[in-house]
Amino acid sequence: MERPTFRSGRRGTHNGQFENGQYENGHGHGQRGRGRGGFQGDRVREQEVRRRARSQGPGQIDADRQRGGARGGWRGGHRGGGGERLRLGGGRNEQAGGAERQGMRAGAAGTGARRGGHNGVRREGRAENRDGTNPSFRYLGYKTLEDLSKQEPSVVAITLSSNPGFRVMLDETPMRPDLVQLICLVVSKAFTSRTDRGTLQHLANVIKESKFLSITLLHYVGGMMSDSNQTRRAQFPQHLEHITAILLEVISIFPASSVNTVNMLVTLLQGSINTLRASGVDFLPKVEEKMENLKDLIAHLQEKSRKGTLRSDKDTYGLLTNSDNQDEEQEDFRNIPLYPTPEEFHQNHKPFLRPNRTSQRYTNTHLYLDTHFRLLREDFVRPLREGIQQLLQNQMAMGRNDNPAKMKHFDDIRVYFDTHLVVPKCTQTGLAYIVQFDVQPLKFVRWQNSKRLLFGSLVCLSYDNFESFLFATVSDRDPKYLEKGQVQITFTEESRVKLARIQTDQLFLMVETTAYFEAYRYVLEGLQEQTEDDLPFQRYIVECSTDVSPPAYLQRQGVYDLSHVAKPEHKKSIRPFNSLDVNAWPDMEELGLDESQMKAFQLALTKELAIIQGPPGTGKTYVGLKIAQALLTNKDLWNDVHSAPMLVVCYTNHALDQFLEGIHKFLKNGIVRVGGRSNSEILKQFNLRELTHSQHFKRTLPSHLRTAYNQIYRQLCDEERAIKSRSLELECSLKGVMRETFLERFMLGRHWMNLNSPPMEDGFEVWSKKTPNLMMDWLGLGSTHFQQREPETVNGKEAEEAMEEEEDLIEIEEEAELIQAERMIDDGWTIGPRAGRDDKKKRNMEEDVREVEKLMLAMNLDNVDIQAEQNTAEWQVQGHQRKKMKQKIRQELGKSSTMTDQQEQNVVDVWSLSLKDRWRLYRLWVSRYRIEVRTKALESEEAYQNSVDRMADVKRQENLHVLREATVIGMTTTGAAKFRKALQEVRPCLVIVEEAAEVLEAHTITTLSRACQHLILIGDHQQLRPSATVFELAKNFNLEMSMFERLVNMGLPYVRLNYQHRMRPDIARLLTPHIYSALENHPSVYEYENIKGLNTNLFFLEHNHLEEEIKDGRSHQNIHEAKFVVALCRYLLLQEYKPEQITILTTYTGQLHCLRKQMPASEFSGVKVHVVDKYQGEENDIILLSLVRSNPQGKVGFLNIPNRVCVALSRAKKGLYCIGNSEILSRVELWSNIFHTLREKEQVGRALTLCCQNHPNRQIEASKADHFSEAPEGGCTQPCQFRLDCGHVCTRACHPYDPEHKEFNCTKKCEKILCDKGHKCTLTCHEKCPKKCPVKVEKIIPQCQHTQMVPCYQDPGTFTCEEPCQKLLPCGHRCDSVCGSSCSTRCIVQVTLKLRCGHIQQGPCFYKTSTVQPECRAPCKHQLKCGHDCRGTCSRCYQGRFHAPCPRRCERLLICSHKCAEPCTRDCPPCRKPCENCCVHSKCMRECGQSCAPCIEPCNWQCPHLKCSKLCHEPCDRPPCTQPCKKTLNCGHPCIGLCGDKCPTKCRLCDHDDVSEIFFGTEDEPDARFIQLEDCGHIFESTAMDQWMSEVNQGPEEQQVAIKLKECPRCKTPIRKNLRYGSHINRSLAEIEIVKKKINGRKSDIEEKIRILKNQWDENQNIGQIYMPKEDKEIQQKLEKSYLTASDLWILENKIDFLIRVAKLRKVEKEKMLVTDGYRFRQSVNQFMSWLNNTSQKFTDQQVFDLQRELQRLNLLAELNVRCHIADTKDQMSKMQSEVQEIRHALEMPGQFTEQDQVNVKEALKSLDEKFPATGLGISEEERKMIVSAMRMPPGHWHKCPNGHVYVITECGGANQRSKCPDCKASIGGQNHTLDSGNEVATEMDGSQHSAWSEANNLLNFDPHDF
Question: Is the dihedral of CA 786, 787, 791, 797 positive or negative?
């Protein structure tokens, strides 16, 4: 069934349902469900992911919605009309809604905001749409366009495509004719740019979507026919040519979506042309030709559309021409596709090929280009074609059901099974994908060095036996991930389009060809684009003329100045001369050249094509640099017309670095190194990437490029964020076991319920105690389950040990790394916006992944700890078990088999499945999850790729800006092929090719541009030749012959350098005459010293030990040779050669790693180990060569190729030692001749003679590694006998190193006497002797008379006796210290302790006498107020004074249908979970316990028969429709639902068993109609479900919660989202809201309560701020909170009350207690405060009770302390000491302070008062009270004289007269309300502190709290 097509890009009321995940089979009617985000029941952890992703704020959400609209607009058009499709929302899973889109999809956006990226708020501020439109654009005017029309096409294209103002201009109507003409001129000019494909595609899309194409041009073209202005009519042909050019481009790029509009325009155009022609206007033939092409193409597309094969804009269509039917031999090579076609794989395809002509000229240039194109294409296609054919034949022979290929080795291809896409990746060059393949068959592969899946390799993926396939290239490889079966690939443009049509969970067979495809692709494209006329030097390259002319520029002006090239002493003597005059040249000695070098130098400067052959060591690089310096210092000769740089091209990066570093010595500026991986620090500043990031570059960059860069960059960031969030989810899903909550939506409802109900054992749930994670337990990965399973074989330990061994071995550059370094040429070129920030981005990405992993994964394989969730006590898994578990999980996650949907339906109980089936079911759930996420990412991926393509065009222009300013440009050959278009624009007129003989001729062709006037080829065709993949093409078609070698063979003039400066003569003899006819030795090579320790400087060791084949990579190893070479290397190091002087070479990579295993880094660090092919151009003093091949068949492999032999034998300067099987090598003529030469001087044999430097007569014949043991130290087995300075003899065997023994350390015992007792030094001889004699002797310790071994020099009185102490501690136990130390004060012997709490337990003895008590471990067992037993211990419950909180979970069902998550509580607080209520318009974002604001949007429930007129939150005023649904399901059968309801996903026929399953009893009726609940997905018969919904809640749970949402009859999921039952749902929600308000409290009541609490706290703020400032601040903050429930206020009220009372106690402690009493009291108060401020303090009944009892204790303790203070002031403390101690003991006893304790203490205090009145009045307390009562005086009237006699002042209480005390005659009273000196208030009478003579003073006598 076709997907519904939505044309509108804006989301209105009819398609807004996508925001909330509702989708009604394409109908535009919204739904008013109550779900969240379009799916049921997001779990807590999933919500956490959403919340994390939502960190960008509400602005981003709005921006995202806007984005969605914009996306619909242009993207829809982009995909075309007719059969086009537009994906809105989630693509295939449309019901995944906006909430999820704003959450998970924005996961990386939050990160972007964190990093200072373009976050959501920023986007909203700019109001950018998906296409980058921006209201702050600069409008494009007529004058701007006019100026733009004079610019280069690429400037025009980039400016138009990146300026939002142009889009607005195109949508203006009406438009002036002159502006229409100018726009057509400018746009047609932009389309002539051929280097900016991504930009042109974007520009064509802008044109296609504009009113300019659909309206303005129609009016303009139609108006031509009626225009009578002759001047304008004369210009119409030119305008029509521009219009047809635009139409051709638009319809070529977007055939499907533009064909109708273009067809209308073409019809009008034809009419206008006919009318104008009839009136005498002439048209050029090319306009007529373009019109014909347009009409033919439109007819072709319309025919495709009628057949239904015109699917999308991405399908490319071309017109069939007559040449299509011609024989392939006559087919133009430019029409041959680069990639193989299906026909080539399935037919007996024999392509037409011509051999490379190496002995005769080519007849024409077309034939030359055609030959090389076909040969090069066949070289990479044939291995793939023949490998796939072999694979298909193999499958047909053995049956398709088997997997025979998994165990079969294919010669031409590498096969990877069960490949699937894992996750998209945003890279610098566009969108890439991580793919996962089955790594099991490849366990033997050593990925670090394997040539498998190298960067740039071509892979072909197919799921239908190569009837169709996708092509991709490897864009990144990491051996660590390859071991897990993961690699990153980038699909070709055509394959990306095909991929979008393939199921996202599709499994592929992936095939890799061994060829490096990227290099082929660049060169093949270059050959197809190369025109015959533009190829330079055809006279020599094609026609092979041997008469080479001077460069064209020399014929104009040929005067050279070589003074800069000359030796320093001759610089001033050399004058400018005519270079074409042979006799005018300076002498070669003046230039520092030998004879052959001088000839090469002259040839290079005077011939437009120069060939220089440089045999090993002859200085070809030296000569090349001389030539380059001469050309650059005479730049005016060849660079006078236009500024053109010199181009230097090398085969390898190493050679390029070497050559450019040489140029840098005489050219300090003007160098640009393009592409490749440079290791040169000198050249770093000249790297193109560095140059484009310099300040100078940014200042000089044209403004149109800066504008375009910024605009595209913003779009890239937006799309990358969207892709990244999906990628995180996809990546995490394969990194371990996912949590069940993330998979719930992809399970059947009954399976979810079943999963959450594990089987019972002995009445207990199996997993509830031991495994906190359900999915882990279900998969058998719980700690108990896994340990009980059968052990599996895991080689983890061995692998770990192997890894540890490898850490100690020398570092060898892996061949894979070396190859990749040459292949990676994108550095600094087509890079995205992340240049220079990749590492940081990668780190941030890894952080994001880790965050999401924590939330999504129950078990993460990448973590060190196997199970982060489980604590140590619950997870005791040994290391080997952890490895087994990880191995098991990796195996299962790597499998591709899943349950089918039918098998899933048949599963009744998920817990009864076998582990194998559980994993299959788990993989099915994960695959569904991945499909949904992957589908959502597709849209952003396409937009990202388009933006990257446009960015590449901008970067290309930026780079051209740098290259045009360069003097020298350096590139590798592959880089030059890739960037050939740039070279065509830069137009270098002078090219130097180094290593030219190693390069395929096709590569050299594409390096040359039309502007090239001078080509210099430097190389040596007798060393390494170019490498072809197909041997037959190399042998029979001469593909491996370079242009260098072919031109030499054709007789073109060349110079060979004849003087070698490297090899000693003995070594050079091996090359001459066997490889080079003549090669002379420079005098310097005769001065080399002989190799030490050997009797010859050159030797070939013969043996017949057989080689071994390496399983992967067609390589070989020879262990005998490896051991011998390593032993010889060790021997040479012992001769005092530096490691840097020795290189080990081998001919096979397998041997490379065999050698490495024998070479510990501690011995061989610094020794170089290489394969021969990677060492060309290098040299070293000593070369050890392992030739490897030795087999019964006599195969020598490529050792029969003279070029490779030449390289291998020519790397050594002073010493060359080879080992190999001479018997099989002698069968090769070259080797036979070499052996003949070696035998002349006895330099070949079965044993190498080792000569001892110290004993020349001692020689060892070494034929194997073991023989080197006879020279253990590099000499011989004789002892050294050298007398050392200390007088001892050297203990080593004879050794040539360190002959003076300056570094030798004598290890014999020192013989020096240290003291007068004759003791000798105890150290070894080379160590410094101690100043004091350390020899231990027996001495008696004077303090204890024990005999001890004491150092000779030490006084025994200062020695600590080590005998065990015999003393007894006061407790009676023996001291555990030594005799000489002080006795222990803390006895640690375990004894029975009786604690103050009364409990008895074992503990250290010292606690018996300590004031500190150990923690009591006795269980509390007290019954709490909640009825549960206390789970704390005696100490934790403070001996019953403050009990630990009850840990029981409440689990009561709340009004919202969630379970209460609080610990044991009397009244459940409001629910804290996110509210799940939502509708089609919006969703509630508050906490569940808060009241929801009702939605007042109009109700959306309508169908053709009925419509609701109420608001969304009100019960609907229409009944449910009972008419059957008329829609058709995807399967083609009629819907089983009812009109207006969402269609059930089940079909009565296809899903008969599910649909007719009896539940209510009416399901099997033939006309039954069904309803599917959106919350859980269950299906029910409609009438029965209607009845269920109308019934009143019943059942035991309903009795507890009378008001609640109705639940699914099957799974008990609350029903929140259903239009049919919207009335029921709304009524329930309204009732629930009432209950919520009651629970939370009325707003007015809460506000009033807050006001009262504020006032209460304010009244006591003085003491609060003074005595508890921290708590004061906390209370103030809590009272200012915007939302407080009744529960919150209850806690706050209790806390305030307790805090006020404690503050008063602190005040009393500070003012009225003795210091010692106050200190102890303060500790008790602090303990109380810690209980009060405890995080678990909820003021439960038990907690309030405990706090109140403790506060009573503190109050009485404070009262006692105050009385003690008063008694102390009256010197009464000694009299009442016993009574006070008794009361204090009662107050400080352990255990809770009971009410009886309180009564007892009060009685004791009362008794104390009677004995010792607190007042000091001489009367009892009762008498005091009676007197005060009788006098009826308010507080403040009682006073006392200086001697303490009490009197009373009546009236106001103020002293206004004086008198005498009747007892002591002292002055009493005073004047003017002021007491006389010594008089004071008698506080002891009534407690007042101030005289009551004023209202203010009077109030101070009262406690405000009492009011």
Answer: positive
Q: Which of 1807, 1799, 1798 is nearest to 1778 (CA)?
A: 1807
Distance CA 1451, CA 1281 (A): 89
CA distance 1616 to 32: 10
859, β-bridge pairs = 737
Neighbours of 1819 (CB within 10 A): 14
The count of C-alpha atoms lying within 13 angstroms of the C-alpha of 1840, restricted to the half-sphere facing its C-beta, is 16
Q: What is the DSSP letter of 978?
A: H
Q: Render pLDDT for 1455-1497 as a digit per residue (tens, 0 to 9).
A: 777 777 677 776 777 787 788 888 878 888 877 877 888 888 8
What is the SS3 assignment for 105?
Answer: helix
State pLDDT tens for residues 1018-1069. 999 988 888 888 888 888 899 999 999 999 999 999 999 999 999 999 999 9
Would you call the peptide bond into 988 cis, given omega within 30 degrees of 0 as the criterion? no
Average pLDDT along the chain:
79
Amino acid sitting at position 1416? C
Q: Which residues lie closer than 8 Å to 1728 by C-beta, 6 or more apart?
A: 1702, 1747, 1750, 1751, 1754
Measured at the alpha carbon of residue 1493, what is the angle toward residues 1487 and 1499, in degrees to the nearest 5?
125
Interval 713-728 mean pLDDT: 83
Could you tell me which residues come within 8 angstroms of residue 27 by beta carbon, excluding any fewer than 6 positions away?
none
Residues 1060 and 616: beta-carbon distance below 8 Å = yes
The answer to whether residues 1804 and 1813 touch, using CB atoms and an 8 Å cutoff, is no
> From CA 567, how far away is CA 573, in angstroms rounded?
10
Q: Are 524 and 373 in contact (CB under 8 A)?
A: yes
Lowest-pLDDT range, 227-231, 446-450, 814-818? 814-818
Q: How far apart are CA 1764 and CA 1493, in angstroms?
A: 62
Name 1637's bridge partners: none
In this structure, the number of other CB atoms found within 10 A of the CB of residue 1591 comes to: 8
Going by C-beta distance under 8 Å and a sequence separation of 6 or more, which residues neighbour residue 923? 892, 893, 895, 896, 897, 898, 899
pLDDT band for position 965 (cuts 50, 70, 90): confident
Backbone angles phi, psi at 1109, to 5 degrees: -90, 135
Longest dimension (CA), the chain: 151
Structural contact between residues 1641 and 1530, judged by C-beta atoms closer than 8 angstroms:
no
Task: Render 1074-1141 in DSSP notation, one character per residue.
Answer: TT-S--EEPGGGGGPPPPTTBS-SEEEEE--PPPEE-SSSS-EE-HHHHHHHHHHHHHHHHTT--GGG
- H/E element holding 1391? strand 1390-1394
Q: Give the whole-angstrom CA distance, residue 951 versus residue 201.
A: 12
1142: Cβ–Cβ under 8 A, 6 or more apart, which residues? 1129, 1132, 1133, 1167, 1168, 1180, 1181, 1182, 1184
Cα end-to-end span (Å), the chain: 81
Closest CA to 460 of 503, 505, 515: 515
CA atoms within 13 A on the CB side of 1386: 7
CB 998 within 8 A of CB 1017: no
Contact partners, residue 5, CB within 8 Å, separation at least 6: 84, 85, 86
**For residue 1792, what pLDDT is reported?**
85
**Between the CA atoms of 415, 420, 423 and 424, what dihedral angle is there, to the nearest 10 degrees?**
70
C-alpha 994/C-alpha 648 separation (Å) is: 8
| Contact of 371 with 356, CB cutoff 8 Å | yes
pLDDT at 1718: 87
If residue 971 lies in a helix (H) or strand (E), which one and from where to where?
strand 968-972
Please state which of the ranges 436-450, 787-801, 1217-1231, 1440-1454 shows the lowest mean pLDDT.
787-801
Give the type of residue at 357. Answer: R
Helix (H, G, I), strand (E, B) or coil at 568: helix
